[in-house]
Amino acid sequence: MLHFFNWYIKRVDQLNEWIGNKISWFTTLLVLLICYDVIMRYLFNQSAAWIFELEWHLFAAIFLIGAAFTLKHDRHVRVDVFYSRFSVKQKAWVNLVGTLIFLIPFCLVIIDASLKFVGNSFRLNESSPDPGGLPARYIIKSAIPIGFILLFLQSISLTFKSLLIIFNKANHKS
Predict the structure, then answer these.
(1) What pLDDT is stored for residue 174 in this prediction?
(2) Please, are residues 99 and 163 in contact by the beta-carbon 8 Å criterion?
(3) Is 171 within a domain?
(4) What span, in angstroms and rounded, lies between the C-alpha atoms of 11 and 17?
(5) Residue 42 predicted with pLDDT over 50
(6) How does the average pLDDT of the chain come out, rounded?
(7) Which ranges does the record mark as transmembrane (predicted)?
(8) Dist CA 162 CA 92 (whole Å)
(9) Structure confidence at residue 169 (pLDDT)
(10) Considering the domain boundaries, does residue 48 fall inside one?
């Protein structure tokens, strides 16, 4: 069991590290696109629906697909009034309980609901309702289940890491 936990942690962490590094480049693209949009809007009084839509598509991809990377690096939002003072083992217990009670069930609910949502979008060949908007809206909607599947996989990794810490078997690199 210990070997499986370490194998799983290593593989999922590698996957989300690789994906997180790739998706982080979307932030650069988003900044450049917003700069272009601002220049066109305020200097040339021109705007296009596809630019605005692409901005929120990039933001959605960064947020959704980057969530597992954020969890892996423990950079998610947390109210840590008490957590920051906890020992490593106490933090592992908090992470374990929180992941099992909240994160994993939430991921499963969102994955289930979003697969139906995205499937419907694919069937309808959904595109933007705005004139000049982006086609193939189902592509960005696909980021919802993809992001939550990655987050689910990372939450299992966090569960295993927490168990290894609780039972003094932690010998992996995060």
Answers:
(1) 46
(2) no
(3) no
(4) 10
(5) yes
(6) 94
(7) 23-44, 50-71, 92-118, 138-167
(8) 5
(9) 83
(10) yes
